[in-house]
Amino acid sequence: MSLTELHLALLAGAPRHGYDIKQEHDSWFPDTRPLPYGQVYATLARLQRDGLAEVVETRVDGGPERTVYALTADGAVRLRAWLAEPAAPTGAGAEEIVRKTVSVLHTGIDVAGFVARQRAAHLRRIRDLQATPPGAGPAERLVREHLIAHLDADLRWLELATELLPSPDDQPTVRPDEREPA
Amino acid sequence: MSTVELSGVSHAYGRTQALSDVSMTVEPGEVVAVTGPSGCGKSTLLMLAAGVLRAQSGRITVAGTDLAGADDASRARFRRREIGLVLQFGQLVPDLSVRDNVALPLLLGGHRPADARAAADGWLERVGLDVAPDTLPADLSGGQAQLAAGARALVAGPRLLLADEPTASLDATSGRALLDLLVNTTVQAGGSVVLVSHDNAVAARADREIRLRRGTIAHQVALS
Q1: pLDDT of residue A179
Q2: At residue B86, what are phi and psi to the nearest 5 degrees?
Q3: Cα torsion at B57, B61, B67, B69 (round to 10°)?
Q4: Which of B19, B30, B152, B184 would bridge B41 by S-S if both were Cys, CB 3.0 to 4.6 A apart?
């Protein structure tokens, strides 16, 4: 995900200050890592430097001073261009599940245990996501369905990998003479 | 007492060994997902627990009744009384209306026809099957047949609900609604559920996963 363009999208509805942007982001993506404030302010500074956002107001509502940002015309063009392009299909990556599964494939260490633990972790997460909180709108449900679809894809890939892995009775593929010297 | 107990169960089709020395239990109120690749033996396990197949070796008890030792007629009576079964393609009786298909467990159990059909109408509404009650199975889509099979499985208040790919013919939203109804209705009444599925969204609904591989249990893990 491009955070720069995502910030433009977060500013598209109305001018916002950094705190608002973080809150809006976290409500759009309730099941992903919350956006750190530091990242918001760094991104806003970059957008302003590049002419994609501008300061339109400084508010003091009895608390700390807050700088309100709005999209510029260039920012709106950039946002539309970003949305006009399809997202790159996820290719072979180096995600943790791939790294670990491939490591299990190569070492043969506790294959059955690894598969059981990984399946359980993914299935628990799918179940949590299926329990849509009361009051969730269509957009939030869609974001959750997207996450579920990805977890499901991981599990299907893991199933394929399991068929390629040694069966629980097979011996580990690492022999003592292949180990790194201590 | 466990709702289901399999002990050292094996089953083969000719020279093909479908299950080898499988032992497992399902406790009252528990939802268990049986998963695994095609041909791993999960549907055979379900049919043995339902009493549709008779185990060639080992012991199977459901709600304290020894199914492996019972004759065909006894197993059929027991199944009608205690077990709700949902299969992938509905498996409705083709000559009966959808209402009578759903009412069938009650009709065969000796209930008054008017009561059985009224109960069937109620369950058809709860599963969201919006067709005339006298519709024949041939005029239902695959998804509609699966909804009717869900209603039939629940109509007699089973102590054990067994479901083989219960949402395979339904879209995601309808499938999840049917699954919620099957699981919640059975568990809230103190019953147990065994879900056999390739679908991870179905498996995620369980309290425990039993993973089969080549006719044996590869792993069991708690999900809740």
Answers
A1: 40
A2: -120, 120
A3: 60
A4: B19
pLDDT tens for B34-64 read 999 989 999 999 999 998 898 899 999 999 9
Which is it for the CA torsion B171, B173, B179, B185, positive or negative?
negative
Size of interface A-B (CB pairs under 8 A): 54
Please check whether residue B102 is in contact with residue B153, taking contact to mean a CB–CB distance below 8 angstroms.
no
Pairwise CB contact (< 8 Å): B211 & A116: yes
Q: Locate the chain A residue with the closest alpha carbon to B224.
A: A124
Give long-range contacts, CB 8 A cutoff, 24+ apart: A96-99: A97/A154, A97/A158
Name all domains of chain B by residue range, CATH numbers in brackets: 4-222 (3.40.50.300)
Instruction: Give the closest of B172, B201, B211 to A126, CB-based.
Output: B201
H helix runs in B83-141, sequence order? 98-108, 113-127
Whether residue B112 lies within 8 A of chain A, CB to CB, comes out as: no
Parallel, antiparallel, or unpaired: how do β-strands B16-26 and B65-66 relate?
unpaired
Residue B39 forms contact with A (CB below 8 Å):
no
Which chain B residues are closer than 8 Å to A152 by Cβ? Answer: 200-201
Token couple for A141: 């449900």
B180 touches chain A (CB under 8 A): no
Q: What is the pLDDT of residues A129-145, one digit of tens each?
A: 988 777 778 888 888 88
Give yes or no for B38 touching A (CB within 8 A): no
Residues of A in contact with B213 (CB under 8 A): 162, 167
| Inter-CA distances, A175 with A87, A164, B135, Å | 44, 19, 66
CB half-sphere exposure, B126, CA atoms < 13 A: 20
Q: Strand A53-59's sheet: what is its strand order?
A: A16-17, A66-71, A53-59
Among B172, B209, B218, whose Cβ lies nearest the Cβ of A123?
B209
Chain B residues with CB inside 8 Å of A120's CB? 209, 221-223
> Comparing C-alpha atoms, which of A41, A43, A34 is closest to residue A3?
A43
